[in-house]
Amino acid sequence: MIDQLESAFNYHQRALGLRQARHEVLASNIANADTPNYKARDIDFASELKKAVDGTQGVAGSAGGGLALARTAGNHIAGEGRAWSGAGSADLLYRIPDQPSLDGNTVDMDRERTQFADNALRYQAGLTILNSRIQGLKSAMQPE
User: Fold this and answer.
1) Which end of the chain is more exposed for a tag (fewer CB within 10 A), N or C?
2) Binned average pLDDT, 10 residues per bin, the chain of 144 residues
3) Taking Cα atoms as reference points, which of 46, 57, 123 lies closest to residue 84?
4) Are 56 and 90 a contacting pair, CB within 8 Å?
5) Beta bridge partners of 68
6) Around Cβ 31, how many Cβ atoms within 10 Å?
7) Cα atoms in the Cβ-side hemisphere of radius 13 Å centred on 41
C-alpha cells in the first residue's frame, strides 16, 4: 500500500524538488546581477527531471543520490537518505548572453525575472496538482 502511495507521488515530488533547486539558482543569478565576471547559470529542467525519474541523478530520493545513513549498531534499520542536496546535484548550465557586458557579467535581468516568474508559476501549478491528487486519494479512501 505504501509503495503504491509513494509511486503515486514520486513524479510530483521530484518535479517540485527540482523546481525549488531551479528557483535557488535563478535567485542567485538575480542577486549577482552586479557582480563582475559572474556567469549566469540555469538548470535544464526537462532533462534533469527525466534523469531524476529514471533514477540516474541525485535528486531527492532517487537511486544513488540521497545521503548515506550510517548505522551505529547492528540492529538499527538500514535506510536511505532522502534529503535534497540543493542545485549541486543537478547539472548547472551556463547561460549564453544576448549582449555581453564590459565587466564580464552574463546576467540578463529581463530574462532572469521572466524565468523566475515562470518557475514560480509552474511550482504553484505543481503544488495545486499534487494537492488535487491527495484530495482525490483521500476521497477514495473515505467511506460514503
Assistant:
1) C
2) 75 92 96 94 92 63 51 72 50 88 93 96 95 89 82
3) 57
4) no
5) 80
6) 12
7) 18
